[in-house]
Write a structure and sequence with these properties.
The protein is of the alpha/beta class and 490 residues long. It contains 17 helices and 15 strands.
Length: 490
């Protein structure tokens, strides 16, 4: 299958009317969220996938902005024919609260002063970021996300979603991340922050009025962080001990090695696209992240209900596999349906942005492992056994359905009425529903696989199956149309 781009895209903006209550107890008004979407939301609104970005990312996850020289940061994963197929899914990615790419952050105008917030911006948390994302998702009328995916800090957001809004997520893939920041991770972030605040041009965070930016401090912060994103092996492969623009060591304090030049380039490039205060606030949010309760991840992750695929990178020393295993173990202890994959890569932490083949395989396999619950409709039109045939016909006509589950007052399935049964009622001049409904109805369970029920539908030549629990209480309904839509893009 040819893998293509979503093409030219534009960033959109959503203004939140209500006051945002932050975890610190402070509030924010007039919050704007920058976001992009790829694909279309289906009429059932059950094909939405939320992408969560890492520290230096933004809403532009895929496609091209006009005039850009490179596509969105996860172009390898999003688009027609890729694991996150925009013909099948409605994909959302938003810039986080506190960011500097369109969502309200320290560089935004404070409505109370008419000037940039600077350090008047309140400290935020990963939970605050997720709460803002939730408001954006709600604005589309989406009750449940088909999937939630993110790496690094994006993976933290995924984990927070699973705890804060467990009923809203069907499947989740946290990649190269943790459930609580470690002392080493906090230490690296603090070095970066100190390099920024020690820069004279930081001006106590109020540099917006000076015409200067703390570029030296922010550059060093990025250089330090970037080292943690790589692995020793990847640095040897990329640079070795090769010299930069010289034949031999000069024995002075100038740059000798290519790796030094590379880090300086990374720092200088970052200064052009990122706000120093946003860096301070976002890294602080990362440091504060801790989903454990009384030092127990098992207790902290007890609300999780989604099916989860935990992914780590074997060469990642910033968020090593041990952190992913902690998540895996805690979810298993809570009887969550969870699986684990490890990317084999020399790239280190950055592998979640680079390993195209492995990522597409892992993500597509996990999302394609569909069960009935992933596709079934829960807003089912039903009728009771006491109803008349005329009422059934009217319900079918008004709601444009061809199957009506017949249930008791407590929603227990006792039969089904089809358009064929209505035809039979005319031929037999039947008025009561009980006379014409199918009582030996075929049904399925939410945990049945799509493959299993497809075989059942074909075997019995039926186009619809009610979904019930162990007590035959109706949970939803699934049709061949829904299955055909899924299979056409696998």
């Amino acid at each position: 299958m040819k893998k293509e781009s979503v093409g030219i895209v534009e960033t959109k903006y959503f203004d939140i009317a209500d006051t945002i209550e932050l975890e610190s107890g402070k509030t924010l008004n007039n919050v704007t969220v920058a976001y992009e979407t790829y694909g279309e939301l289906n009429k059932e609104k059950n094909n939405a996938v939320l992408i969560c970005h890492a520290l230096s990312g933004d809403a532009h996850a895929a496609g091209w902005h006009k005039g850009d020289k490179k596509p969105g940061w996860w172009e390898i994963l999003i688009g027609p024919g890729k694991a996150l197929d925009s013909r099948k899914y409605f994909i959302i990615c938003s810039n986080v609260l506190g960011g500097c790419k369109g969502t309200t952050g320290p560089a935004s105008i404070n409505p109370e002063t008419g000037k940039e917030y600077g350090t008047d911006f309140p400290v935020i948390t990963i939970k605050d970021m997720v709460n803002v994302q939730k408001i954006l998702v709600d604005s589309f009328g989406i009750d449940k996300l088909a999937a939630l995916i993110g790496g690094s800090m994006g993976g933290m957001q995924v984990m927070q979603w699973l705890v804060s809004y467990p009923e809203m997520v069907k499947k989740a893939i946290p990649i190269a991340t943790t459930a609580r920041s470690s002392p080493q991770q906090i230490a690296f972030n603090e070095v970066g922050r100190q390099s920024i605040v020690a820069d004279p041009d930081w001006a106590g965070g109020n540099y917006y009025e000076t015409g200067k930016v703390p570029k030296n401090g922010l550059s060093v912060a990025r250089m330090v962080a970037h080292i943690t994103y790589l692995s020793d092996e990847s640095m040897y492969l990329k640079f070795g001990r090769d010299l930069q623009d010289k034949e031999e060591v000069t024995y002075d304090l100038s740059m000798d090695f290519q790796v030094e030049s590379y880090l300086h380039h990374q720092g200088a490039s970052f200064v052009k696209r990122f706000d120093a205060n946003s860096y301070l606030y976002i890294t602080k949010a990362i440091d504060l992240f801790d989903l454990s309760i009384n030092n127990s991840l098992i207790d902290g992750l007890s609300p999780v209900k989604a099916k989860v695929e935990v992914v780590s990178v074997d060469s990642d020393w910033l968020y090593p596999t041990e952190h992913s295993m902690d998540i895996l173990t805690a979810l298993q202890a809570n009887d969550v349906e969870v699986s684990f994959s490890e990317l084999k890569s020399s790239y280190g932490h950055d592998a979640f942005l680079l390993e195209k083949g492995q990522l597409n395989y892992i993500v597509s396999r996990f999302l394609a492992d569909n069960v009935v619950e992933d596709l079934m409709r829960t807003d089912v039109i039903t009728i009771t056994e006491k109803a008349q045939v005329e009422e059934a016909a009217r319900l079918m006509l008004d709601n444009q359905v061809t199957h009506l589950p017949v249930v008791t007052d407590d929603k227990k399935l006792i039969g089904i009425v089809t358009s064929w049964d209505l035809s039979k009622s005319i031929a037999t001049d039947s008025k009561d529903l009980m006379e014409i409904m199918t009582k030996t109805v075929k049904f399925c369970k939410a945990e049945d696989t799509i493959e299993e029920i497809s075989h059942k539908m074909k075997k019995f030549d039926i186009s619809c199956l009610p979904v019930v629990d162990d007590d035959l209480i109706l949970q939803g309904i699934i049709t061949t149309d829904q299955i055909s839509h899924l299979i056409s893009y696998i």
